[in-house]
Amino acid sequence: PDPVEDLSPLAAAVAVTPGCVAHAPLAGFSTWFFFTRPDRPCKGVAGSGLDTNAVDELTRLIGTVPAGGRIDGHIFSITLDGVAKALLDAQTRGVEVWLSADGDVALSTDASKTKYLDKLTHKVYCTHANNRACISTADGAISHTKLFVFSTATAPDGVVANSVVWFGSANQTFASGARLYNNTVMIYGDASLYSLLKGYLGDMFNQKRRADYYDPTSGRGHFLAT
Asked: Are 79 and 53 in contact (CB under 8 A)?
């Protein structure tokens, strides 16, 4: 069974820690990397096989978006109340939250969905007769993207930035986001990347489904930034 989550607000300051948290410029933009390693948890009890380092950082990041800001995101799978509650709390304090999700989320009876995500004003669960995808018409397709963008957010070192993107390999579940080896990346201040990925999230929210969404010739699904 998953442990009981601590839903209290997370501290803003996060230290660079070898093997757990890294900070470096990427094309001149402040970039933070968070890793999970269940054998030697960055955050958690040694021997538990559970490391919440990456998922806790997403929760913290969501919590820094000020009233009047905007969050766009897509979730493949979620059972973490902390992330879902942070999104609803953001909406409550005046942040616009736009969320799309794989169609399987629509069937979830987990509290993260029924208690929090279902109360979001702007949400869509991508359910179709032949698949559960947001942008694909292929039979059996899923919507596997893990991506958020923030109009304004605060970095782990306390620096406030506009045009923030978050992406990585971790689902918002204990099974994936905390019990497996995963990574997440946050880039602060890259307005071009933010705009491109926000457009992609908009396509998913509006379910602009195609048989060939990825088309580098047109630029659809193929995003280039510095």
From this structure: no
Q: What are phi and psi of 116, to 5 degrees?
A: -120, -65
Q: At what angle do helices 53-63 and 81-92 cross, to 10 degrees?
A: 10
- Give the C-alpha distances (Å, rounded to integers) separating 17 from 23, 35, 111, 211: 9, 10, 33, 43
Residues 138-175: tens digit of each pLDDT: 999 999 999 999 999 999 999 999 999 999 999 999 99
Q: Pairing relation of β-strands 70-75 and 96-102?
A: parallel
Cβ pair 196, 52 in contact under 8 A: no
Residue 143, CA distances (Å) to 89, 126, 127, 205 in order: 25, 8, 10, 11
% of the chain surpassing 70 pLDDT: 99
Asked if residue 164 lies in contact with residue 152, where contact means CB atoms within 8 angstroms, the answer is yes
Spatial CA neighbour of 24 closest among 155, 150, 153: 155
| Signed CA dihedral, 22, 26, 30, 33: sign only | negative
Can you say how many angstroms the Cα of residue 226 is from the centroid of all Cα atoms in its chain? Answer: 22
CB 41 within 8 A of CB 34: no
